[in-house]
Amino acid sequence: MRFLPGLSSLILTLFRKCLFLWVRTDVIGASREQLELDPDKPICYVLQYSSLSSRLVLEQEVLRAGLPSAEQPVPIHGAPQRSFFFLYHRTGGLFRRRQTPTLTERMQAYVELCLGDPTLDIQVVPVSLFWGRAPDKARSLVKLVLSDTWSVAGRLQKFLIILVHGRNTYVQFSKPLSLSQVVDEHRDNEQKAIRKVARVLRTHFRRVRQAVLGPDLSHRRTLVEGLIRTPAVKDAIRETARKEDIPPEKARMKARKYADEIAASMSVATIRVLEVVLSWLWNRIYNGVAVNNIEVAQDVARDYSVIYVPCHRSHIDYLLLSYVLYRNGLMPPHIAAGINLNMPVVGPVLRRGGAFFMRRSFKDNPLYSTVFNEYMHVMFTRGYSVEYFVEGGRSRTGRMLQPRPGMLAMTVRSFLRDHRKPIVFVPVYVGYEKVMEGRSYLGELRGKKKQKESIFSLIRAIGKLRNSFGKVAVNFGEAIPLAPLLDEVEPSWRKQAYASDYRPKWLNRAVSELAIRVATRINAAVAVNPIGMTATVLLSTERLAMDESQLSRLMDQFADLLRAFPYADTVTLPEGQGKDWVDYCEGMGLVDRQPQKLGDIIALEGNNAILMTYYRNNIQHLFALPSLIASLFENNASLAQDKVVFLASVVYPYLQSELFLKYHPEQAEQVVDQWLDVLVSQGLLRSEGDLIMRPLEGTDAMLRLRILSRFIIQTLERYHISIAVLRKYGSGKISATELEEQSTLMAERMSILFGLNAPEFFDKTLFRNFIANLQKNEVITEDANGQLCYTDGLDEVAEDARLVLSVEKRQAIQQVTMLGA
Questions:
Q1: Which of 201, 181, 175 is nearest to 32 (CA)?
Q2: Is 27 in a helix, a strand, or coil?
Q3: CATH class as words, domain 714-819
Q4: pTM of the predicted model, to two decimals?
Q5: In this predicted structure, what is the pLDDT of residue 412?
Q6: Partners of 309 in the beta sheet?
Q7: Cα 557 from Cα 551, distance rounded (Å)
Q8: 3-state secondary structure 350-361
Q9: Is the pLDDT of residue 801 over 70?
Q10: Structure confidence by residue, pLDDT tens digits, 749-791
């Protein structure tokens, strides 16, 4: 009867080929490298529920991936005839009532096999399969029947699901479990071993299903009504009725209106349509979307409520992130969107794509604030993934903006009320080679009023689809679990009780620390691209122009600098070399080529000179410390190493606060020492004993050092402006607000007089942050009248500027300061 297994195999192959005439799959993780399989150990696959269609899909995908067949036996004596098993099978016939799923005999056979031989270890690869990816929200019976959801489908329902959703099938291979390790503690009790294996696999499949489909979603109308019935909202309704002297029912209607205005209405149909539209859009306007370190999100989505916190550079950000997550097997998050985007046509689409809308400010509207807080609390406690921008608005300068605490504080307070579902923050860096709103940002930086979003502005934006915007990178940074952070700030936080309106004294410290970590880890996931490298070097030249071969060589050398001392594992560098990057920038229309017999000149002209500061600012933090060290040799041929380390360490806290550098101030001296070693090894500095010396004038190394010093010099000049203004007025003669205003005016004047092309040079918020840090570090203090006081220590800081700023720059700052007197 040997022909029977062969006949069975032939029939299954025929069924599989027929099934795949219709079925199309999107597969993740199906490779030896991604699974990290041990070639010396046998492999077995596991699916959650018995199903012929699932078995056929599994075999098709393992064959495509070059993995061992699931239909062949494991090469172990006494093993079952197939190297896969279902965790559960259903009892009952086609038309009989289905009973509770029970463990399969083959699964138990594999456990018994492993228990019988302590030296045997089988790699069990869990495989999750979804026919369509729909959240469990339905408005009709048809949607329930035709969606693969949290419920277990019957045979007829499975047939209809495959018929409707077979061309949108998602398969995820997960890293293998060691069967020997799982059963090890119960080798003397077979039933306990079987139950443990089942529990481990059941938990795994549940977590994957939650990550892919999202939690069970309730109907939007039910959610809105539930918000109105929460104790916090009921109290707010009563208080509003009392304060505004209106009937309670009217206040309740107002609360219901707020909830309806806020709540998302995620629709799987809309998500699928958006996937198709966005796939076309990205191929139309971008030369590719690079996704890096997505494993961070995939790993935490199984166990946590995930808060995605991307940088905010463009309106494209949230569409792009949702698209990337969905394409990589994760449910798109609910996205906090400004109420300005809730416009005709666009608003309903965004809402169905997962957007919930929030007003810019609601501190004077306690009822709205309460409804919004309760809505967020529902999101977090039910395990929904959420996305919001900690910067508040889009960065017009290309730098990471100072985080705003509002949404972070709501998240922390919600977690304190109910921390049964852990929360993790996933920082995301979205890097554009050419940001779509770049030209409008230029106008706003020059004082032009920001245009309100409208359907007409959307129509105008469609015209830009004819242009190419290069490549875009989506880099996922290191995750930040919330509970361990709270343990650091307030170890006893779990012992306290928290009402919905309670704000513990240490909340601000926790939110501040969280904000800094989020911003820092976003910056630590930066994607360096050819545009940023070209902008960084060209903007550091006197005339914004350079010989092509020299420019190419310098970019290669500065890229080598980043490789010699990597800022973080999550930073990505561009492919190719400097020559390729110059050609690429020219093709993007961002640099101009001036042919010349001795060698072509590459230059920045017109608006491109200012626009390129945006892309330089994207990566400025990577060069901050080596550039600061280089600037110390602007006016000094040599310095003692201790002096270099001391001066760089004094300035570092201000750079750290402004650029969100990852090193703690206590680490500054060690990191500066490491950078000195790198700069010496790269030939940018020389070392003799305890003396650090710059290269000889006229050498290529000196040119590199001088260019490197200019990467950060305008930031140092801005600091010196504030100190110069403060010293001009004298101790106890000017307030922090006045100093901020005067410093901004002086910087703007200097920018005009000396042709500085960096819009952030006179950014008021940067001066405000610097002044706040001077106070934090007790360089200056505030007296009882709110005036700033300082000691002789400030004069010493000003004197140290001689080591950094050239005579011309110091005189220029002094001149502008005196002119403004």
A1: 175
A2: strand
A3: mainly alpha
A4: 0.80
A5: 95
A6: 427
A7: 10
A8: HHHCCEEEECCC
A9: no
A10: 888 777 666 777 888 888 999 999 888 888 899 998 999 998 8
Q: What is 584-614 written as a DSSP string? A: HHHHTTSSEEE--TT--EEE--THHHHHHHH
Nearest to 632 by CA among 608, 617, 619, 649: 649
Give the separation between CA 349 and CA 271, rounded to whole angstroms: 9
**Relative orientation angle of helices 507-523 and 406-417, to the nearest 10 degrees:** 120
DSSP string, 86-118: EEEE--S-SSSPP---EE-HHHHHHHHHHHH-T
Number of Cβ within a 10 Å radius of residue 396: 22
* Residue 685 to residue 687: CA distance in whole angstroms: 7
> Which range (300-309, 430-439, 521-530) has the least confidence?
430-439
Torsions phi, psi for 603 (to 5 deg):
-135, 160
pLDDT for residue 100 is more than 50: yes
Q: Write out pLDDT tens, residues 203-212.
A: 888 888 877 7
Q: Between 739 and 497, name the one with better pLDDT.
A: 739
Instruction: Please say if the pLDDT value at position 409 is more than 90.
Output: yes
Report phi then psi at 629, rounded to 5.
-60, -45
CATH class label, 221-522: alpha beta
pLDDT for 235 equals: 92
Q: Is the pLDDT of residue 739 over 80?
A: yes
> Which pLDDT value is given to residue 803?
67
Q: Which two tokens stand for residue 360?
A: 């810019």
User: What residue type is 84 in one-letter code?
Assistant: F
Q: Tell me the per-residue pLDDT of 105-115, one tens digit each, with 9 for 90 and over.
A: 898 999 988 88
Least confident range from 244-248, 720-724, 752-756, 763-767: namely: 752-756
Longest dimension (CA), the chain: 104
Q: How far apart are CA 108 and CA 636, in angstroms?
A: 76
Distances (CA, A) of 77 to 74, 121, 766: 8, 13, 71
CB 275 within 8 A of CB 170: no
Report the distance separating Cα 212 and Cα 437, nearest Å.
32
H-state helical runs in 418-529: 438-445, 455-462, 482-489, 507-523
Q: Based on C-alpha coordinates, what's the Rg of the chain? A: 31
d(CA 630, CA 450): 38
Q: Kindly tell me if the per-residue pLDDT of 804 is higher than 80.
A: no
Residues in the chain: 821
Q: Say whether 25 sits in a helix, a strand or coil.
A: strand
Q: Are 168 and 272 in contact (CB under 8 A)?
A: yes
Domain limits, the chain: 3-213, 221-522, 530-709, 714-819
Residue 135: its pLDDT value, please?
Answer: 43
59: its two tokens: 């075999």
Contacting residues for 165 by C-beta, under 8 A, at least 6 apart: 131, 132, 146, 147, 148
Q: Are 536 and 711 in contact (CB under 8 A)?
A: yes
Tell me what pLDDT residue 145 has: 43
Report yes or no: 298 and 211 within 8 Å, Cβ to Cβ: yes
Q: Quick one: CA torsion of 100, 106, 107, 113, rounded to 10 degrees?
A: 150
**What number of other Cβ atoms are within 10 A of residue 337's Cβ?**
23
How far apart CA 329 and CA 174 sit, in angstroms, is 12
Alpha-carbon distance 367 to 232, whole Å? 10
Report how far residue 40's alpha carbon sits from residue 46's, in angstroms, rounded to the nearest whole number: 19
Mean pLDDT of 105-130: 90
Q: What does the pLDDT average to over 75-95?
A: 77
List strand residue ranges (DSSP E) for 493-581, in order: 545-547
